[in-house]
Design a protein that fits this description.
This is VWFA domain-containing protein. It is a single chain. The chain has 185 residues and is α/β, with parallel strands linked by helices. It has a single domain, classed as von Willebrand factor, type A domain (Rossmann fold). Strand 7, helix 5 and strand 8 form a beta-alpha-beta unit.
């Protein structure tokens, strides 16, 4: 009998779902496609008996913005759609983002656990001095590296946290984001 597996909160349903999306020109097509599938994703996630909390974070190389956190999937879809317009219309091309820092901000907004993070980025991660801290045991990081050229950003620190949390790393093109809902959510 594996006692560690029994005590692992990630062996149960995730009660809080956090989407973190990079706000940059490189994410505009992916954001448009995410906007097209978010209703079906929240509907699929919401199936089940327990309460779910949906949260959204937008980030770039300067800011990390907490957009919304709600238990109501309809409100979340509306606020998600409004936020995706900011990403779709973002003219800024960036070389790196605060994606590693986002991972460590998630526990600050967590209301229910265990928590799953879906992080979408098209750039390499900026160095973050405190990234060596361990993640909470009840957080799983799933990383989506988005690239239209096929050259996916090297995300060593991000991949480390994804692996350490038992999450997945899914390199995708902006158009393939539409197929992600079947594999990841």
């Amino acid at each position: 009998m594996n006692l560690n597996a029994i005590a692992d909160p990630k062996q149960h349903e995730f009660r809080q779902i956090v989407f973190a999306i990079e706000k940059s020109a490189g994410m505009s097509i992916a954001a448009s496609n995410l906007n097209r599938i978010i209703y079906s994703v929240t509907k699929r996630i919401k199936q089940g008996s327990s309460e779910r909390q949906f949260s959204l974070i937008l980030f770039d190389d300067i800011d990390i913005n907490f957009v919304t956190s709600t238990y109501d999937p309809d409100i979340f879809v509306n606020q998600f759609s409004e936020a995706m317009l900011q990403v779709i219309n973002s003219p800024r091309a960036i070389d790196s983002s605060r994606s590693v820092e986002v991972i460590f901000k998630v526990p600050q907004i967590t209301i229910l656990s265990p928590t799953i993070l879906y992080l979408f980025t098209s750039t390499a991660a900026m160095p973050f001095d405190r990234y060596t801290r361990s993640l909470p045991r009840d957080l799983q990081v799933n990383l989506f590296t988005v690239s239209s050229s096929g050259d996916f950003p090297v995300a060593g620190d991000l991949i480390y946290h994804q692996r350490a949390s038992g999450g997945r790393n899914l390199p995708v093109t902006p158009d393939r984001v539409l197929q992600v809902r079947r594999a990841a959510f």
